[in-house]
Specification:
single chain; about 450 residues; 9 helices; 13-stranded mixed β-sheet; ten-stranded antiparallel β-sheet; alpha+beta; Anthranilate synthase; 25 strands
C-alpha cells in the first residue's frame, strides 16, 4: 500500500535550459508531455496504478483522488501541473488485456507561460528541500542507467557517427515488417467496413493497422521524443512506459472549470500537393474543406464529442467551420471545442470522469460506438493496446491534459517498435486511398526512427 505522498514545488531558472522541456529528454525512461517547448517531464516512480476493463478510468480516478487527498503538498508556484502529478496511458478497448496505468514520478520539471518549476514527490519520511530536489534532478539527468545522451552525432537508423578523428561506425539498416494484417488483407478489411456502412448499421468506422520496425543498433527512445518534439511542435509529444508519439488531437484539457478539446477528422497527405499550382494551403482548403466525404467524417466526430460532453457542461461552443491544421506530414480538418463545466452530483467532474464519458470518440472508433467497436474487433485482427487510447497527465487540483495516442508506437523490446495508424472509413472511402493515408500517418514515427518511406 502506498504511503502518504509529500511534495515540494519550487521555481526553476528557465534561462539555464533555453531549449525548454526537450532539453530534459535525455533518458529513455523519461515520462513526457510537451508542446511548443512547454509541458511536463518526469523521472523515476514513487507510485503506480494499473487496471483493465470497462471501469479502468473510474478505478484510476478513485485511486488518484484517494492518493492526493491525503498528500502533504507544499507548492510555491501554484499553476496547472504543479504539486503532485501523474502521467497516464489507457488502453483503447475495454476488452483489451493491455494494462492501463497512472505513474507518479519522483521528479517533475514543468514549463508553462514562461514559468519553469521543479517538483519532488516522496512516499517516505525523508526531508524535502529545494537543494535536495535540485540534487535529485541532477542525479536523474546524469545517471547512466537508461540515459540516452552521447558524444556522437545522430544519423538515420539510430546509430552514431563518431567525432572527427575517430573511426566511423555506420549503423545497421532498420527493417520494416507488416504487423497483424498484410496491406492486401487490410484493404480487404476496409472494403468490408464500407460494405457494412452501406447496410445502414453504422455511419463511420475507424480501422487501424500496425507495422513493426526492427533497429539492430537499438531503439533510442529519448532521441525519438526529441525528434518528435522539434519536428511536430503543434502536436503534443508523449512518452509513458514505452508508448511514444506526437498526437495532434486533444481529447480533453481541463483547467479549473474550463474544458477544451481539439477534434480532427479528414486527412490529406502533404505530398499530394507536389506539382499542384497555387499555394499548398489553398490546395488543402479545396481538397479537404471542399470534400463532402471529408466534411461528413468531420461532422460525425464533432457531434460525437459534443453530445457526450454536453451533460457535464453549462455552456459550450465550437467552431462553426473547421479549420485546416498544418502539420509537417499531413493537413487535417480540425475544430476546437470549449466548455464551461457544471457540477455533477455536487462537484465538478474530474479529467478521468470526463474521459470515461468521452472515450472512445467517433474520431478513433466510429459511430454508433458499440457497433463500430464490435466491427473493429472483427476486422482489425489486433489488440490496439494503448494506441488511440487517452494519454497525458493530471494534477491534484483537477487540472490535466489528455490527448489521443495517435501518430505513435510501442517500444516492445530494445530493438523493436510497433507502429500504429488508422483511418476513418465512411461510405465514400476507397481502400487504396486509405492505405496511402496510413503511410502518411506512420511518417512522424518512421522519421524519428530514421526510417524513410
Amino acid at each position: 500500500m502506498t504511503r502518504t505522498l509529500r511534495t515540494l514545488t519550487v521555481p526553476l531558472d528557465g534561462e539555464s535550459t533555453p531549449g525548454g522541456l526537450p532539453s530534459y529528454l535525455v533518458r529513455d525512461d523519461v515520462l513526457c508531455w510537451t508542446r511548443r517547448e512547454a509541458g511536463l517531464v518526469g523521472f523515476g516512480e514513487v507510485a503506480r496504478f494499473t487496471a483493465t476493463g470497462p471501469e479502468r478510468f473510474l478505478e484510476a480516478d478513485i485511486w488518484w483522488r484517494h492518493l492526493v487527498i491525503e498528500a502533504d503538498i507544499t507548492d510555491h508556484v501554484e499553476c496547472p501541473g504543479t504539486g503532485p502529478v501523474a502521467f497516464g496511458s489507457f488502453a483503447f478497448s475495454k476488452v483489451s488485456a493491455h494494462e492501463s496505468r497512472l505513474i507518479v514520478p519522483e521528479i517533475v520539471v514543468g514549463v508553462r507561460d514562461g514559468r519553469t518549476w521543479l517538483t519532488q514527490i516522496k512516499a517516505d519520511d525523508g526531508e524535502l528541500t529545494e537543494a535536495g530536489a535540485l540534487a535529485a534532478l541532477k542525479g536523474w539527468l546524469e545517471s547512466p542507467a537508461g540515459a540516452a545522451a552521447s558524444d556522437g552525432v545522430a544519423v538515420p537508423g539510430g546509430g552514431m557517427l563518431a567525432e572527427a578523428g575517430a573511426a566511423v561506425v555506420l549503423p545497421e539498416p532498420a527493417t520494416l515488417a507488416t504487423g497483424s494484417l498484410s496491406e492486401a488483407d487490410w484493404m480487404a478489411a476496409v472494403a468490408a467496413g464500407v460494405a457494412e456502412i452501406r447496410t445502414g448499421r453504422l455511419e463511420k468506422l475507424v480501422l487501424a493497422r500496425d507495422v513493426v520496425a526492427t533497429l539492430p543498433d537499438g531503439v533510442n527512445a529519448a532521441e525519438v521524443l526529441r525528434q518528435l518534439a522539434v519536428r511536430y511542435r503543434e502536436c503534443w509529444t508523449y512518452g509513458v512506459d514505452g508508448l511514444v508519439g506526437a498526437t495532434p488531437e486533444m481529447l480533453i484539457q481541463v483547467e479549473g472549470r474550463t474544458a477544451q478539446a481539439r477534434v480532427l477528422a479528414g486527412t490529406l497527405d502533404r505530398r499530394d500537393a507536389v506539382g499542384e499550382s497555387g499555394l499548398p494551403l489553398d490546395y488543402a482548403e479545396r481538397v479537404l474543406a471542399g470534400s463532402e466525404k471529408q466534411r461528413h467524417e468531420h461532422e460525425i466526430a464533432i457531434q460525437s464529442l459534443t453530445t457526450q460532453l454536453a451533460p457535464f457542461s453549462e455552456a459550450m461552443n465550437a467552431h462553426s467551420e473547421p479549420f485546416i491544421l498544418e502539420l509537417p506530414n499531413v493537413w487535417h480538418l480540425a475544430s476546437d471545442v470549449k466548455a464551461e463545466l457544471t457540477e455533477v452530483e455536487g462537484h465538478v467532474p474530474t479529467c478521468l470522469a470526463l474521459i470515461n464519458a468521452l472515450h472512445p470518440t467517433a474520431a478513433v472508433c466510429g459511430t454508433p460506438t458499440q457497433v463500430a467497436g464490435a466491427l473493429i474487433r472483427k476486422l482489425e485482427h489486433l489488440d490496439r493496446g494503448p494506441y488511440a487510447g487517452p494519454v497525458g497527465w493530471l494534477d491534484a487540483a483537477g487540472n490535466g491534459e489528455w490527448g489521443i495516442a495517435l501518430r505513435g508506437a510501442v517500444i516492445e523490446s530494445p530493438n523493436t517498435v510497433r507502429l500504429y495508424a488508422g483511418c476513418g472509413i465512411v461510405e465514400g472511402s476507397h481502400p487504396e486511398a486509405e492505405l496511402a493515408e496510413t503511410w502518411a500517418k506512420f511518417r512522424p514515427m518512421l522519421e524519428s526512427l530514421g526510417i524513410s518511406n
